[in-house]
Amino acid sequence: MTTEDLLATCWTTAGAAAPDSRDQRSPLRLRERAEAAGAAGFTGFGLLYADLVEAERTYGLPGVRALFEDNGLVHVELEFLLDWWTEGPRRAASDVVRRDLLRAAETLGARHIKVGPDVGDGPWDLDVWAEEFAGLAAQADGVGARLGIEFLPWSNIRTVRDGLELVAAAGHPAGGLIIDVWHTERAQTPPADLADVPASRIVGVELSDADSEVVGTLVEDTVRHRRLCGEGSFALPDLVTALRTAGWNGPWGVEILSDAHRALPVRQAADAAYRTAAELLR
């Protein structure tokens, strides 16, 4: 249906697991998830840190790489590092995750590592954040990956412009943005702003859809009520056109989070996510 590569982000195949759960691990074995993604047509796969730990314990990192390769999953995304900008006990815990993600990225040949902003929207110093981001980008570059920050409309880095300010201040070529269209739409970002993003600064793109009105809080809406591409209110063709104008040609991430999606058998969930995104990109 499309000649462009699609990447199943971590939640799309995670089954009954959610970002707002105390235990974020997927109840499904990685083999089952990878086989479902590959059978649906995906050529990329996203893996959450909590699931990476379980997968390494079960298969070993070389085994995980072989599992991905056996299922045609050549684009690997790892996530989600927080507290990389801070100090004290939170930074110490974050550094453990950082080391594991960098080590896994090198063995798995990951294309990028995804990091987040301060979801508590606390005060922050751009110079400090830029220095920390540049250092982290250099580490990612050292293992053959890129570093992408995902801006969130309830965080300290809310919009694509905020993200670009940080990335530009950091100045490392391996650093850039993860542009999730759910976040750009909920932040009321016009497509023209996406078309103006330098192609060199786009590390990843994520597609989904949603209702015209936010259901509950923004966090509840993004975790519980996303829709498959084309089944909501977003002007997705305009967003895709804008991102193509910016120079993006994939792999296109597909990130479906909803109670309805989590309830589906993983093969059915992967098939639906792939089919609707592929139809959009035709």
What does this protein look like?
- The protein is of the alpha/beta class and about 280 residues long.
- The protein has helices at about 30-40, 50-60, 60-70, 90-110, 125-140, 160-170, 180-185, 190-195, 220-225, 235-245, 260, 265-280; strands at about 5-10, 45-50, 75-80, 110-115, 145-150, 175-180, 200-205, 250-255.
- Strands 1-2-3-4-5-6-7-8 form an eight-stranded parallel beta barrel, surrounded by six helices.
- It is globular.
- The protein starts with 5 loop residues before the first strand and ends with a helix.
- The mean pLDDT is about 95.
Give unreliable regions as ranges.
Answer: none
Q: Cα-atom Rg, whole angstroms?
A: 17 Å
Order of helices and strands: EHEHHEHEHEHEHHEHHEHH
- Number of spatially distinct domains: 1
Helix count? 12
> In CATH's first tier, which class applies?
Alpha Beta
- CATH superfamily (homologous) name: Divalent-metal-dependent TIM barrel enzymes
The N- and C-terminal alpha carbons lie at a distance of 6 Å
* Backbone shape: globular
- Provide mean pLDDT, rounded: 96
CATH topology: TIM Barrel
Overall number of strands: 8
Please tell me the CATH architecture by its name: Alpha-Beta Barrel
Largest sheet, spatial ordering of strands: 1-2-3-4-5-6-7-8
The largest sheet, given as strand count, sense and whether it forms a barrel, is: 8 strands, parallel, barrel
Strand content: 5-15%
**What is the helix fraction of residues, given as a range?**
40-55%
> What would you call the structural class?
alpha/beta
